[in-house]
Amino acid sequence: MQIISSQIESFQKSSSWIRKMFEAGIELKKKYGADNVCDFSLGNPDLVPPASIVDALRALPEQVNCPAGMGYMPNAGYADVRAGLANYLSKEQGVTFKAENLVITCGAAGGLNCLFRAILTPGEEVLCPAPYFVEYGFYTSNFGGVLKSVPSIPENGFHLDLQAFEAAITEKTRAVIINNPNNPSGVIYTADELQALGKILDKATAKYGRPILLISDEPYRFLAFDGAVVPPVMPLYTYTVIVGSFSKNLALAGERVGYIAVNPAMPEGSALVAGVTMTNRILGFVNAPCLGQRLMLAALGTQADPSAYISRRKKMAAVLTAANIEFTMPAGTFYFFPKAPNGMNDIDFVNKLAEERILVVPGSGFGFPGYFRIALCVDEKFIDLSAEGFKRAAKA
Questions:
Q1: How much is the average pLDDT of 315-335?
Q2: CATH value of 52-299 in 3.40.50.450, 3.40.640.10, 3.90.640.90, 3.40.1180.10
């Protein structure tokens, strides 16, 4: 007898390649020892949180001991936290936010689920560029939506194929979601291409008589290299929603604090905020963790020191170059997305690397076969240790 739904059973069979490789790494570490396995599978930030987080933690007991210090709150989050975040985002995005434009969520993942629950009718579609974060497909299907991907152009550094996006929009399209900087490719979309995408969506919105949202998922905004800038998307398109979190920049992945920010210029924007506030409740999140909200508020404007990622990026680029593996230097994030060598199937190559005790994730898990993802959330000694293994696997 089957106790779980057929949909969840199918999800389990096609479960995230990220988790599969992470679990394979656990077994390899048991067999060979943790110091002998180069596990680049999971994007789990390993930086030390900034000093502002440590100071905020020390101050928490006073807040916890006050009346309702850990009690229920408005589903959208504490009023002062929303106000502080609104001020911070106003500077970042170049538009004036107010607290009522924001909902504090249980991480970016919780925020996306709340947003999709609020906007999707079963059968409607969400477009995204490929490669993409695999969970987007699960988040949309949770509410009867369909994720459709539009392949990016590897030869152009994985930037958007704007003509393909325009051709992919139909009367079923409800939203376009981008991840900027992108996981797994590391590309940073430029202001020009985002503005062009906005014009395409304006045209489609007028054609079909209802708004198509542009959702910008931005947890990696803080990590851009070589002076690159992640452009603010809010001024470029009226129907924009930003989803963000503090998992990466404050190294607080387990605390689950994120947000949804609705463009203040959006017609009916207040209705969207109200809808997301409700779905935050009825999906069972209720509100983001109270302690996490306090930590986030105290640390706004600070971040964990990213210098380790800068060094690791340089070192991994040297390792891949020495192995004659083709790649585009990531402009942001802590990922590489190289091409499987010699036209090899990406899954076969990932398995070949596993024989060398190197764990990466096949591009098939990100909707883009033929490539593989490397996460730089490890000590540099493992990048050094992997060098000969990459060479042997590539030659094989």
A1: 96
A2: 3.40.640.10
